[in-house]
Write a structure and sequence with these properties.
370 residues
């Protein structure tokens, strides 16, 4: 029995998807029961969330009770802030479970988890227990929230890692960045386990595609302005699927692009079915590149910025420096002009993220703890 632990974010995203897919993978491909114990930041309230952060978690006895009730041999923790903290992991160990800590982002050191400042630029000013830059820059918004996160990370990051028998990251890029941030990984084994994708296209139709697709949250770190400019310079119609704080600004700046707003998975699949290329102009050091890999699995080749895990996913000709719209336009033309790139993208995504590839790697992490 594997018990997954996750504190849901106020704004749901890729990590919630990863937790759901991990449960499916354990049940369907490892043949083991798997349950999820969750808390929800949206229901916690800001004052209680701040208290949880500073204390290192609330009500750890609930986690111990869940371990005993389910008979879990492994507690696989995903996001622990703010409700769970290091105390939840310690309680699970005391109840008899081994602990895996899954680091989907850089929140051991960075308050926002992405190493992105308020201007959407990559930032590594916080290092190890020195979280003062994040407090001074108010990376978490208001002064009170910035102080709560900065103090809590500095106080509890070592305790959190100390409760883990193994650490999991989604890419080599994530592991290297965590070490560059002087995250307190210590001697705890660090395993690279990609997210598993459930489905892959039988063939690619991208060579018949009509548009360049930008599927992303419309936030500064996603480089949407660069992506739109590059796709237009490459001579392709542009479709932007997503919502976020920059939506109105982007619509006004690119009246010739089609903005769909937020779309569900079915509608996104329809947009990918008519796409010639997926453009990802992230300015952040992505830990995995889920949007890129999902497009590739659907047979849509990717042109992207050479940052974080995106460098592991696409060939050099499909990559461009961050913020360089002209170079990204050349990458888009290279990708769109290669009729075999779609099939190669499916093969690359399958080799990295097929359940038959990921499941043994996850099983090896669990089994090493026995």
């Amino acid at each position: 029995m594997i018990l997954l632990l996750h504190n849901r974010y106020r704004h749901l995203g890729g990590e919630e998807r990863a937790v759901r897919d991990t449960q499916w993978l354990v049940r369907e491909h490892l043949g083991e029961d798997c349950e999820v114990l969750e808390r929800d930041s949206a229901a916690l309230g800001r004052a209680r969330a701040a208290t949880a952060l500073v204390r290192g978690g609330l009500e750890p006895e609930d986690v111990a009770a869940a371990v005993r009730h389910t008979g879990a041999r492994v507690l696989h923790a995903h996001n622990t802030n703010p409700a769970f903290g290091w105390r939840a992991l310690a309680a699970a160990r005391e109840a008899g479970a081994r602990v895996v800590l899954h680091l989907h982002n850089y929140r051991l050191v960075c308050a926002v988890g992405t190493c992105v400042n308020s201007r959407g630029q990559d930032c590594t000013r916080c290092q190890g227990r020195d979280t003062l830059p994040g407090i001074a820059l108010r990376c978490r918004g208001g002064a009170a929230e910035a102080v709560a996160y900065g103090v809590a990370l500095a106080a509890h990051q070592r305790r959190l890692v100390a409760q883990a028998d193994a650490l999991v990251v989604p890419s080599d890029a994530a592991r290297h960045r965590l070490r560059a941030l002087r995250a307190p990984l210590g001697e705890t084994p660090v395993h690279v386990v990609p997210h598993a994708l459930r489905a892959f296209a039988a063939k690619s139709r991208a060579h018949e595609g009509e548009h360049a697709l930008i599927a992303s949250r419309l936030a500064p770190e996603k480089g949407i302005t660069t992506a739109v400019a590059a796709a237009q310079a490459a001579g392709l119609p542009v479709v932007v699927a997503g919502a976020g704080p920059l939506e109105a600004q982007l619509r006004a700046a690119a009246p010739d692009a089609t903005f769909t707003g937020w779309v569900d998975e079915r509608r996104l699949a329809e947009l990918r079915a008519r796409a010639r290329v997926s453009v990802i102009a992230s300015q952040a050091a992505e830990t995995f590149g889920l949007a890129a890999l999902e497009a590739m699995a659907d047979g849509v080749p990717v042109a992207a910025t050479a940052t974080g895990a995106l460098r592991e996913l696409a060939p050099a000709a499909a990559l461009a420096p961050v913020g360089d719209a002209d170079a990204l336009a050349r990458a888009i033309r290279e990708v769109a002009g290669d009729p075999g790139r779609g099939a190669a993208s499916i093969a690359a995504a399958r080799a990295r993220c097929a359940p038959a590839v990921v499941a043994p790697r996850l099983a090896a992490v669990y089994d090493a703890l026995a």
